[in-house]
Amino acid sequence: MKTFGIIAVVLCGALLIYGTVDFPEWGDPASPASTYVSPYYIEHSIPDTSVPNIVTAILADYRGYDTMFETAVVFAAGIACIFLLRIEKRDSPRSRLYRHIPTGVTIRIEQGGRLPEGSRDLERIDSVWVPYDLIIKTGCRLVIPFIQLFALYVIAHGHHSPGGGFQGGVIFGAAIILYALAYDLRTAQTHLPIRTSVLLSSTGVLIYAGTGALCLLLGANFLNYSALAGLLGVDPVTARSHGILIVEIGVALAVMAVMVGLYYIISSAGRLDEGL
Amino acid sequence: MDPVIAFIIAKYNYWMYIILMMIGLCGMIIKKNLIKKIIGMNIFQTAIILFYISIAAKKNATIPIIAHAHGDGHAAVNAAGIINPLPHVLMLTAIVVAVATLGVALALAIKIYRQYHTLEEDEIISQIRE
Predict the structure, then answer these.
(1) What is the DSSP letter of A62?
(2) B39 CA to chain A: closest CA distance, Å?
(3) pLDDT per residue as tens digits for the range A112-161
(4) Closest by Cα among A252, A105, A108, A266 to A185
(5) pLDDT of res. A93
(6) Which of A153, A230, B56, B63 shows its CA 20 to 30 Å from the CA of A265?
(7) Is the Cβ–Cβ distance between B57 and A35 less than 8 Å?
(8) Rounded to an integer, what distance in angstroms lies between the CA atom of residue A217 and that of residue B63?
(9) Which residue of A has its CA nearest to B15?
């Protein structure tokens, strides 16, 4: 079996090398990939959409269908993970562990015991003991707002600089995952529960598809944002630019929520209470 | 320069992606552990991303963002001076979808581990046959 696998891999590599002989050289401006449709995009993106970042213009306007269904794929993957792993009916834990922060003493509270939830000196911890890490928690608390601000900048500034919904959404999701790593899953879920993240991801897809449907209702083709000109009060070219921003926000919401949801589900193997 | 060496240097991006692709394929076909297979799948996806991004490159060209687009001087945009933006768009979505498929693959691996208490492929097959 192993030799068969190696033979298959080597054969595949040999075929690829044989095919590469006909490929254009690296950086060739006259290569077939660069002469067929991309010159149109490069030359027409400013007159058509008034977006200087051609990648954003293609992503959300010229290839809007593609991006819409990519967003739907990301959403479907998030939902699939939740359906695969989520444990709906879980037993309430027999005992809970708390740490008294000033002394470092760990307290176990059996079922039925009184819960010191309100106390500031006590911190609930996972069943796997982890040391109290002031530096990591404080450092993350300081850095997370700036990560989120940068994510919003990347989303909103995708028209003029590298960025957009996918990148900004991933950065925003990373900020929340960092929070969940520095504290624990329960603390992160008090701020963004898994239900909210599912709702946000479906809202993102809805914003994207809804913008397309709105264009349809206003008498243009699906995802032809120039139909929004009347609603937004701008000329059709600027309306396409604004339409791109709207769908990018939808993409960012969906991607952010799915990244966070995937982390919650996989790190805790579906239990959503403890993990990593 | 020797023409063979010149040929190899002119297409070095393709050799890199072929090497990465073969490593990924090796991981997927030969390795018995499911997590190693998933890692192989990711390396394979990275190879494809590298391939697409490398065919977008043009010599002496700049990034696909038009400078001073809304400014005063409306210079004509020269398509040869800007790299091909289309592969970048395709790979932008492909990266996110790769993360999503990785998530589903890991979820399936957790599910399989719960059922069979192992991630080794041959042990799982022998348990299924019992």
Answers:
(1) I
(2) 16
(3) 777 666 667 777 777 777 777 889 999 999 999 999 999 999 999 988 88
(4) A266
(5) 67
(6) A153
(7) no
(8) 37
(9) A17
Query: B103: which residues sit within 8 A by CB, 6+ positions away?
Result: A77, A78, A81, A262, A265, A266
Q: Give just the sign of the alpha carbon dihedral A55, A57, A61, A62.
A: negative
Q: Per the CB < 8 Å rule, is A80 touching B88?
A: no
Counts of helices then strands in chain B (DSSP H, E): 5, 0
pLDDT digits (tens, 9 = 90+) for A218-238: 988 888 888 888 888 888 888
Contact A156, A252 (CB under 8 A): no
**Three-state SS for A72?**
helix
Q: Give B103's contacts in chain A (Cβ within 8 Å).
A: 77-78, 81, 262, 265-266
Run of H or E including A95: strand A95-100
Nearest CA in chain B to A12: B22
pTM over 0.90: no
ipTM topping 0.90: no
Q: What is the pLDDT of residues A38-62, one digit of tens each?
A: 888 888 888 888 888 899 999 988 9
| CA separation for the pair A230, A221 (Å, rounded) | 15
User: Strand pairing partners for A187?
Assistant: none
The count of other CB atoms within 10 Å of the CB of residue A84 is: 17
Q: What's the CA gap between B74 and B60, in Å, rounded?
A: 21
Hey, how many other C-beta atoms are within 10 angstroms of the C-beta on B9?
12
**pLDDT digits over B64-87, tens only?**
888 776 765 556 677 778 888 999
One-letter amino acid for residue A258 of the chain: V
Token pair 């970048």 in the structure block, residue: B88
Phi, psi of B16 (to 5 degrees): -60, -45
With a cut of 70, say whether residue A89 has pLDDT above it. no
Residues of B in contact with A16 (CB under 8 A): 14, 18, 21
Which class does domain B3-59+83-129 fall in?
Answer: mainly alpha
